[in-house]
């Protein structure tokens, strides 16, 4: 058989098939994600090809440039009207480019940028064998306490892979709130979760605890992902599509072109309800809502503190973004089914987080429970199901992420011989020894507590107002009670810092490099600006509060 | 012309700012700055007065709108002035007497190292008082009202190193707060019911408002007046206020500030005219106070406190007249002006006596001073004759008119009020004669050291006191002090006649306050004769007691009434038992409730939260398997409830 004949066979066989249009990809509108993912891949190449000595600088530079460029791209898109009038669904229906997506992507990128600064801090730990070291293990693969670990420490290694991992995580988080079909949602979930599992495991000190945290996070995260995936399958079974728009049409019955298979399943509400509940559960796991919160304290405590700060801030932003889109775009027709359940979740989350935090003795666990309580407050805004609900949640997330990164950055400064001194008793009298650090931490605590003139107050006020106007008055009452309970343990730390006698062998406060100082300084500045003059940002969030469908 | 109104206030305000912020470098000239600016304000007042006289009676009212402080919807807080005949009268009195007292203070405060500050406070007082009488709405009036209260507080406590002065200042401030609450409530009621607090609209609105509302506002205004004008039951601070320097007593606590209550009531005439019940309460308060003050004045040996009792009593006359409605408004203000002259003169005279007597205030340590201080004696004497209502002098005209008006009220009320006023006149003659005789006549008791009183055996041993006793050298005061006294004496003598002959004052003020002759049950001549008779009786008794017999250098024990009057008719004891003790009991019970109930609930909640927290915390056991179970259970419940909600 001649080559021509073979060729004609191929073409002959191909002919009956309809022509496939090449997918049209809007690179410009996807540029933030593409920049970050691209930089992450370059970061992997850096690990492979750049000499070990230079990797730290190359990675930090690459990460900062990539995140800053992506942020600039987000600003450019927003300025170009893609958040409002030109909002549309891109990448063949897989990604939405609209107000909430851009607002959250901007927040995530800034949080990521500050996180890179805290990742890159190398002045806090004492110099080991002539090398400055950061928070990450010398060689993550070595067994803690083994000879190979000692050799790695001696050689001055460090886990510079943390930076590409961070970039991958940020990339996944950028997609997560803008995902417009269930498969993209799931992929994004895994893309940002897997790097986080790894990052949790690479602490330089207390490595066993760090690894335990990572394993727990991974196991439970995989468990939650399984639920999500099963839920996605059920929803696909129900609607015959993974696209948000199609599912929404099937849910509210406005779908046209009902084929026989769909006609069979679309009446089956059990599929829909169970599927929706399972997908929502997966997202609730990521935001750390009770009763899917159990991983939070252990992981927050065990992970390297810069990673904890990043995770606490950015994961929450991304996961709430995805939850908002799911509930507002896919399931608005199901509102009367999911609202009561979410009410219950919000109430137990607010109360549970606040109450259990009272008896915590470790500052990182305390902040973990505090983040659980905050997840409850944000859920109250989500339940509002109004445009104000969306914008208040956006504002709250932005405010909260800066406070969180700043607070965890302060935690890295207070140290004793064993590394960070996270036990609360060690913080007694810190205000006498290091008034500035204690004052900055007090600002963050007051913001967490929602005291006026801090961003915490403006955010809490916005979500509670939206919730009250959205018919969730009882939720607001519970929210205020929880806030009062929560205020107790925040204020207790302030009292401990300023009104207790310092312990004689208390911790020292390390003087950080300008990197951490920048992260903390930006955190304080944003906290105060959003607290004193929140109007502009509330309006910004208000403009960004409309989902494209 | 109306642009000058703001300058009236601005001049002394500038003085206060310069003197209080200027610091030590102004010490040498501070008193001159203060005096000149007070005089500037007086000159502006005279210019405005001359302009006003040139206009017809109905066109005399002027207004100046400076700016709107907080314009919020219907809440219009304007900084705006109104100058009518009533305000004009006050402006002249305040700036005129004020300027004289500034001059007097130059001499009186000469040796005080904080003289600059003193003049700063005096200027502050003038500015606030002018603001009070020039405001065209109740809110701005309230600003002035609080301003004079502040100045009064600062000046009573001017010698703050004396605990008694500090306490007296605090007392004045606290008692005044009660009255101030009345004014603020009145203003709030006005805004709630009329939607405004400008004089014009409020007073116009009285026509369509129910009497009950007007009575409520009227009583609140009366409460305010009681506080500021030291009327029963808020009178207790005035006697102690004499701890302040004497010029302060003359200006603030005799001539001007304490009459602010009278101004308030006369200014709010339309409210009171339409609320007879409130008016009746006003007359009762006035009548009670005029007796109360007079009785207290009879028993005091401290010359300033005797005069303070007299002030209280004379303001009682004014309040009484103001409560009579259109029959009395004009006479209330007329008596206010003449009283401003003679009482300021009397206080300045008392200050002059103290100045020459090593700051001794006990009249039992005076005696026979007329030889040593002739000018003080003559001016004080003319003030004395004026206040007791000696025919032809100021007090004769103004007080007599009030007594007539009280009778003209008509009915039983008129008889009672008229009799009280008449009785007050008798007591006035008595205590003033007593002051006069004890100070300027009789034996020179100051030549000998005080001996212990038989009534107070616990007093210090005599020998010790005698050893330290320094015989004073009474002398006439410097010109800066005597000239104001002479000027005020002229006012004391001639003002009343000038006002009354041809009813000048009545015609001047009538367009603002209105006037009504009432129905006098007895002729004016009868009342005048009766007044003369009681005057002679009162003065005669005093002469018998203090002119014919030697005055003991130490107070005898006295009758029950005397002892009560010395203690200000037990006002402080009453306040202590009823208010202080009551307040303490209330506080204690509240503290008890707070500790047992509120704290119990709070601590109980905290403890139960802590317990709950400890228990919930155990769920977090560190095992991934139990976390997974929790998640699984949560998911199961989530799904079950979602399905269940649909089923329901």
From TrEMBL, chain A:
Gene Ontology MF annotations: NADH dehydrogenase (quinone) (non-electrogenic) activity; NADH dehydrogenase (ubiquinone) activity; quinone binding
Major localisation: membrane
Enzymatic class: translocase
Superkingdom as given in the UniProt entry: Bacteria
Reaction catalysis annotation: a quinone + NADH + 5 H(+)(in) = a quinol + NAD(+) + 4 H(+)(out)
Membrane-crossing residue ranges in chain numbering: 30-50, 57-82, 102-120, 162-179, 185-203, 215-239, 270-295, 307-328, 340-359, 366-387, 393-414, 435-454, 474-499, 511-533
Localisation: Cell membrane; Endomembrane system; Membrane
NADH:quinone oxidoreductase/Mrp antiporter transmembrane domain residues: 179-485
Family from the record: Belongs to the complex I subunit 2 family.
SUBUNIT field: NDH-1 is composed of 14 different subunits. Subunits NuoA, H, J, K, L, M, N constitute the membrane sector of the complex.
PANTHER family: NADH DEHYDROGENASE
Annotated function: NDH-1 shuttles electrons from NADH, via FMN and iron-sulfur (Fe-S) centers, to quinones in the respiratory chain. The immediate electron acceptor for the enzyme in this species is believed to be a menaquinone. Couples the redox reaction to proton translocation (for every two electrons transferred, four hydrogen ions are translocated across the cytoplasmic membrane), and thus conserves the redox energy in a proton gradient.
Protein name listed in UniProt: NADH-quinone oxidoreductase subunit N
Organism field: Streptomyces sporangiiformans
Gene name of the record: nuoN
UniProtKB/TrEMBL annotation, chain B:
Transmembrane residue ranges: 31-54, 89-106, 118-135, 181-202, 214-234, 246-266, 278-299, 372-394, 414-432, 483-502, 522-544, 627-645
Domain NADH-Ubiquinone oxidoreductase (complex I) chain 5 N-terminal: 69-119
Record has Cell wall biogenesis/degradation as a keyword: no
Any one GO cellular component localisation term in the record: membrane
Gene Ontology MF term list: NADH dehydrogenase (ubiquinone) activity; NADH dehydrogenase activity
Keyword Transmembrane attached: yes
Biased composition (Basic and acidic residues): 463-477
Record's keyword terms, sorted: Membrane, Transmembrane, Transmembrane helix
Cell location: Endomembrane system; Membrane
One Pfam family this sequence matches: Proton_antipo_N
Membrane topology: Multi-pass membrane protein
Domain NADH:quinone oxidoreductase/Mrp antiporter transmembrane residues, every copy: 135-421
InterPro entries in UniProt: NADHpl_OxRdtase_5_subgr, ND/Mrp_TM, NU5C-like, Proton_antipo_N
Gene3D superfamilies per UniProt: 1.20.5.2700
UniProt record, GO biological process: ATP synthesis coupled electron transport; electron transport coupled proton transport
Location of region: Disordered: 449-477
Top-level taxon of origin: Bacteria
NCBIfam families named in the record: NDH_I_L, PRK06590.1
Full protein name: NADH-quinone oxidoreductase subunit L
């Amino acid at each position: 058989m001649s080559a021509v004949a073979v060729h004609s066979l191929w073409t002959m066989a191909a002919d009956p098939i309809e022509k496939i249009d090449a997918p049209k990809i809007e690179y410009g509108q996807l540029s933030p994600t593409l920049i970050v993912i691209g930089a992450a891949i370059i970061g992997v190449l850096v690990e492979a090809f750049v000499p070990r000595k230079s990797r730290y600088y190359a990675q930090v530079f690459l990460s900062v440039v990539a995140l800053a460029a992506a942020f600039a791209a987000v600003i450019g898109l927003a300025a170009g009207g893609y958040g409002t009038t030109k909002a549309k669904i891109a990448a063949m229906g897989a990604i939405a480019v609209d107000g909430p997506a851009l607002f959250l992507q901007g927040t995530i990128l800034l949080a990521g940028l500050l996180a890179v600064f805290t990742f890159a801090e190398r002045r806090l730990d004492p110099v080991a064998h002539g090398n400055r070291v950061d928070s990450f293990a010398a060689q993550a693969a070595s067994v803690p306490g083994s000879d190979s670990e000692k050799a790695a420490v001696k050689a001055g290694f460090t886990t510079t892979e943390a930076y590409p991992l961070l970039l991958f995580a940020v990339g996944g988080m950028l997609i997560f709130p803008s995902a417009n079909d269930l498969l993209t949602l799931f992929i994004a979930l895994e893309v940002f979760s897997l790097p986080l599992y790894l990052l949790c495991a690479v602490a330089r000190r207390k490595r066993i605890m760090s690894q335990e945290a990572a394993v727990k996070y991974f196991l439970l995260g995989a468990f939650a992902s399984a639920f999500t995936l099963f839920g996605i399958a059920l929803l696909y079974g129900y609607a015959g599509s993974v696209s948000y728009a199609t599912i929404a049409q099937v849910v509210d019955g406005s779908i046209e072109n009902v084929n026989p298979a769909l006609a069979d399943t679309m009446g089956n509400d059990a599929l829909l309800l169970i599927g929706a509940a399972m997908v929502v559960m997966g997202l609730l796991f990521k935001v750390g809502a009770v009763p899917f919160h159990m991983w939070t304290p252990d992981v927050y405590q065990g992970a390297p503190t810069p990673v904890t700060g990043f995770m606490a801030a950015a994961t929450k932003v991304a996961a709430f973004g995805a939850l908002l889109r799911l509930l507002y775009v896919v399931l608005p027709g199901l509102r009367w089914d999911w609202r009561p359940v979410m009410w219950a979740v919000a109430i137990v989350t607010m109360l549970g987080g606040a109450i259990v935090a009272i008896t915590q003795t470790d500052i990182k666990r305390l902040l973990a429970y505090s983040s659980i309580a905050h997840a409850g407050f944000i859920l109250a805004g989500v339940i509002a199901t109004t445009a104000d609900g969306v914008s208040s949640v956006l504002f709250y997330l932005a405010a909260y992420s800066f406070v969180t990164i700043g607070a965890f950055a302060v935690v890295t400064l207070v140290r004793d011989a064993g590394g960070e001194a996270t036990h609360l008793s060690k913080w007694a009298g810190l205000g006498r020894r290091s008034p500035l650090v204690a004052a900055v931490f007090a600002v963050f605590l007051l913001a967490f507590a929602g005291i006026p003139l801090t961003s915490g107050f403006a955010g809490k006020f916005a979500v509670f107002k939206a919730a009250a106007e959205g018919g969730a008055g009882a939720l607001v009452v519970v929210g205020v009670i929880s806030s009062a309970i929560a205020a107790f343990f925040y204020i207790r730390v302030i009292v401990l810092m300023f009104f207790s006698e310092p312990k004689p062998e208390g911790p020292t406060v390390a003087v950080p490099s300008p990197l951490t100082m920048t992260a903390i300084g930006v955190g304080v500045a944003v906290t105060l600006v959003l607290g004193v003059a929140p109007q502009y940002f509330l309006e910004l969030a208000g403009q960004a509060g409309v989902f494209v469908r | 012309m109306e642009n000058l109104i703001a300058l009236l206030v601005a001049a002394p305000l500038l003085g206060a700012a310069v003197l209080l912020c200027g610091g030590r470098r102004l010490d040498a000239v501070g008193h001159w700055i203060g005096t000149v600016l007070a005089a500037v304000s007086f000159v502006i007042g005279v210019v405005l007065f001359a302009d006003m006289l040139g206009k017809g009676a109905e066109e005399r009212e002027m207004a100046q709108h400076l700016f709107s402080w907080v314009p919020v919807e219907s809440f219009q807080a304007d900084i705006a002035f109104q100058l009518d005949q009533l305000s004009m009268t006050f402006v002249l009195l305040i700036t005129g007497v004020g300027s004289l007292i500034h001059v007097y203070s130059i001499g009186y405060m000469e040796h005080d190292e904080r003289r600059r500050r003193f003049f700063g406070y005096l200027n502050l007082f003038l500015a606030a008082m002018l603001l009070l009488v020039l405001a065209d709405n109740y809110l701005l009036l309230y600003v002035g009202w609080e301003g004079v209260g502040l100045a009064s507080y600062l000046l009573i406590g001017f010698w703050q190193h004396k605990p008694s002065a500090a306490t007296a200042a605090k007392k004045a401030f606290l008692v005044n707060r009660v009255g101030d609450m009345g004014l603020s409530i009145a203003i709030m009621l006005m805004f709630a019911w009329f939607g405004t607090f400008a004089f014009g609209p409020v007073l116009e609105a009285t026509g369509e408002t129910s009497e009950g509302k007007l009575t409520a506002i009227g009583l609140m205004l009366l409460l305010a007046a009681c506080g500021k004008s030291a009327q029963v039951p808020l009178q207790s601070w005035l006697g102690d206020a004499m701890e302040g320097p004497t010029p302060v007593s003359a200006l603030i606590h005799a001539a001007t500030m304490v009459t602010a209550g009278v101004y308030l009531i006369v200014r709010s005439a339309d409210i009171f005219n339409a609320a007879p019940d409130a008016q009746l309460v006003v007359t009762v308060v006035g009548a009670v106070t005029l007796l109360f003050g007079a009785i207290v004045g009879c028993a005091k040996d401290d010359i300033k406190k005797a005069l303070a009792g007299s002030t209280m009593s004379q303001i009682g006359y004014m309040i009484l007249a103001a409560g009579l409605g259109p029959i009395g408004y004009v006479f209330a203000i007329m008596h206010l002006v003449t009283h401003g002259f003679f009482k300021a003169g009397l206080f300045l005279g008392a200050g002059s006596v103290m100045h020459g007597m090593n700051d001794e205030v006990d009249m039992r340590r005076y005696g026979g001073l007329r030889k040593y201080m002739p000018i003080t004696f003559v001016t004080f004497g003319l003030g004395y004759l004026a206040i007791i209502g000696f025919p032809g002098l100021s007090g004769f005209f103004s007080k007599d008119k009030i007594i007539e008006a009280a009778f003209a009220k008509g009915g039983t009320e008129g008889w009672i009020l008229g009799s009280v006023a008449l009785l007050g006149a008798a007591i006035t003659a008595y205590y003033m004669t007593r002051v006069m005789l004890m100070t300027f006549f009789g034996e020179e008791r100051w030549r000998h050291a005080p001996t212990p009183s038989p009534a107070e055996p616990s007093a210090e041993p005599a020998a010790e006191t005698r050893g330290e006793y320094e015989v004073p050298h009474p002398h006439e005061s410097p010109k800066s002090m005597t000239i104001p006294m002479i000027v005020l004496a002229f006012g004391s003598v001639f003002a009343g006649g000038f006002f009354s002959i041809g009813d000048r004052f009545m015609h001047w003020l009538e367009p603002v306050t209105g006037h009504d002759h009432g129905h006098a049950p007895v002729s004016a001549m009868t009342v005048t004769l009766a007044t003369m008779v009681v005057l002679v009786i009162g003065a005669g008794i005093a002469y018998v007691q203090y002119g014919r017999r030697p005055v003991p250098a130490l107070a005898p024990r006295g009758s029950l009434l005397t002892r009560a009057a010395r203690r200000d008719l037990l006002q402080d004891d009453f306040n202590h038992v009823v208010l202080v003790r009551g307040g303490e009991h209330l506080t204690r019970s509240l503290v008890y409730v707070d500790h047992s109930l509120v704290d119990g609930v709070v601590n109980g909640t905290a403890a139960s939260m802590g317990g709950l927290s400890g228990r919930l915390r155990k769920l977090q056991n560190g095992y991934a398997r139990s976390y997974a179970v929790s998640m699984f259970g949560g998911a199961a419940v989530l799904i079950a409830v979602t399905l269940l909600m649909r089923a329901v």
